[in-house]
Design goal:
The complex is a heterodimer of chains A (242) and B (517). Chain A has one domain (3-207): Fumarate Reductase Cytochrome B subunit. Helices cover 67% and strands 1% of the residues of chain A. Chain A has ten helices and one strand. The mean pLDDT of chain B is 88. Chain B has helices at residues 21-31, 59-62, 81-86, 109-113, 164-170, 192-196, 223-227, 249-253, 259-262, 281-285, 292-299, 306-314, 319-326, 329-336, 371-377, 400-403, 409-416, 421-442, 448-458, 462-474, 477-480, 488-495, 498-501, and strands spanning 3-12, 43-47, 66-68, 74-76, 104-106, 125-127, 179-183, 202-205, 211-213, 233-236, 241-244, 269-277, 341-342, 353-356, 365-368, 389-392. Among the domains of chain B are: 17-101 and 138-253, Alpha-Beta Plaits (2-Layer Sandwich), CATH 3.30.70; 365-477, nitrate reductase domain like (nitrate reductase domain fold, Orthogonal Bundle), CATH 1.10.3650.10. A four-stranded mixed β-sheet of chain B has the order 12-1-14-13. Chain B has a two-stranded antiparallel sheet with strand order 2-7. A two-stranded antiparallel ribbon of chain B has the order 3-4. Chain B starts with a strand and ends in a 16-residue tail after the last helix. Chain B is α+β, with helices and mostly antiparallel strands. In chain B, 33% of the residues lie in helices and 14% in strands. The chains are: A mainly alpha (242), B alpha+beta (517). Strand 1 (218-219) of chain A pairs parallel with strand 8 (202-205) of chain B.
Chain lengths: 242, 517
Amino acid sequence: MSLPHLFLFVGLPYAAILLFLVGTVQRYRNTGFKVSSLSSQFLEGRALFWGAVPFHFGILVVLLGHLIAFLLPGGTLLWNSSPVRLIVLEVTAFTFGLSTFVGLVALLVRRFTNPRVKMVTTRMDVALELLLLAQVVLGLWIALGYRWGSSWFAADLSPYLMSLFTFDPNITAVSAMPLVIQLHIIGAWLLIAIFPQTRLVHMLVAPLHYLARPYQRVIWNWDRAAIRNPETPWSEMRPKNN
Amino acid sequence: MDIRAQISMVFHLDKCIGCHTCSVACKNIWTDRKGAEYQWWNNVETKPGTGYPGRWEDQEIYKGGWQRDTNGGIQLKGAGKKKGLINIFHNPNFPTVEDYYEPFTYDYLNLVEAPAGDDQPTARPVSLITGEPIDVKMGPNWDDDLGGTPDYARNDPNLEKLSPAEREAMFQLERMAFFYLPRICNHCLNPGCVASCPSGAIYKRGEDGIVLINQKVCRAWRMCVTACPYKKAYYNWYTGKSEKCILCYPRLEAGLAPACMHSCVGRIRYIGVLLYDAERIQAAASAADADLVARHLDMLVDPFDEEVIAAAQKNGVPDSTIKAAQDSPTYRFVKEWRLALPLHPEFRTLPMLFYVPPLLPVVASVREVADEQKKKSLNEISKVWPDNWLYDTSTEELWGTVEQVRFPLQYLASLFSAGDTGAVAARLKKLMAVRIFRRFKTVGDVSEEIMTKVLADTGLTQETAEAIFRLTALAKFNERFVIPPAHREQALEMLEFTGDARGSTGFGFRERPARGL
């Protein structure tokens, strides 16, 4: 346990989480207008399909896999106790990782070659996509070179992450990990740190509530029927508009 | 009964001269901004033509609007909860910039700054997206006045229901005809855009039915663009937000007509309140194709009916709005006189913008007759030219010409009544009857017998015919635009206590609309 390790695996995570929380709240409250997925499909539609679709479905599954292994390490280990199931899990995860990689490369190529898309590309977009690409490449490298990730993640990294959240950081295991894995972990914390300042914020406003609402939406500026009813006090009828 | 009020519009197409003043007024006020250059919340199309974006009426391409499912209900054709969320990363039915046109300007500075040389300097077109010189291949009115006919007018999706012979007849040079179709957002009662918005950013205002997009909640999932069958929701490529016609609600709330209507040179536009029964929306939207127009009109209720007034008051519709509904020019045109029809009712969004069908049939012929005979057939006040030609309107076949309008009825029916030619013919007949009635009164070469028969055939009285003529031809500003007060004083009281507002620095949208990181 050296000072750099303490910085990278304890200081950086806490700083990242703090930046994430404060930054997200700040961004949403002060510049809420800018929280958007910033789709560029209007400017270019075909190449986007070969990038956005494999990338998004890939990263959703990969992210979900990481989350499950972190939250349910016991369950993951139990699943992996049978070699067949372990192979199924690893192959699935790797396939989706590969899909993420292919999609991301396609998106990067599109971003740099299409003159219209270039016009709506910010420096942060480029930085973010390169960081993501590094993360995905490292992830695929780890999956190939350090088997079986799903098991050792659940066994060694979940306790590390959990120790951070219980404010009792334990970095013994993570300090001993190979450099590639350490880089992947550092990349993850960096992504979380810059998250609120990037277009990634659209994840936080994913429209899952759409499933629960009725199709049509009517907003009354104020309840005119209630305003005529002398028995209803005004103060209880403040509209929810905007 | 759930009576609500809706600001509705009527466009009288026979009066539209296609000057695009409405489009320019709208553009100057609302869409002269980065990212919105290509958006025309109001545009005027030549029909037959492919329109803007190209072939927007063809829902096999754009998948807009609703369609009936096997259970008799309706589903969004290209969006909705399932399709919308599955296609959220890439919307396969999303029109891109090529479907509209690449916005451009001209390099005017080159005209004054070009170095001296042998050639006249030119102002090259420059893309407003990339800033690079482009070859302009498309514009918002590329097919104006039938320009480029083989590529545009002949590809009009409404021609599909015509027989090849009818189609050919339309494009014979000596029979060529066209009319203009000004379009804005229809502020529908069953809007596809609202239903398709995953974020729930789009909503219909309860008080006046205006459909708006909350710019702060829009997250660029772009489903509204697909779901609107009229392609009147636009994606701003710079801010990453969808935008649409707001019916100039800041003007409406101040009692002013929307800019497009205010500036209309041909005075074709009418705006007024319609009261409708919200409980009948579902039945109207899911009616069989043949019943669509009838169900749509059934939904609109009589603002003079005591029961309706009581129900409206119970719902909190202010008396001033009910009064506006009684004075509404749109109620007259749409329901009382049944002269106007919705555009493409088969999209099932229940549009609240109605059109008086255009292109009255020609009812006169030019004949060579003896001078004496000509004088006999005209009354004393008629102007007589010293030649033997007579502009003769005395046709024996009163309604024969309706079936022989300049366009096949089927074409107009495809636009305005989901294929029901009877609905279009009935309206054209009424328009003709009013014309014959006025001719009887002012020129006098139509016999009273014919005039009476014509009015009786179409179910009009002389008073109604006179009223239709008045509102069509003579109506002044305040008769064409009957705008109810917005009662913002009540809104303000409800939104905040006046004590809260005292000494504060204002309210509302304080963030500059710029693109995010």
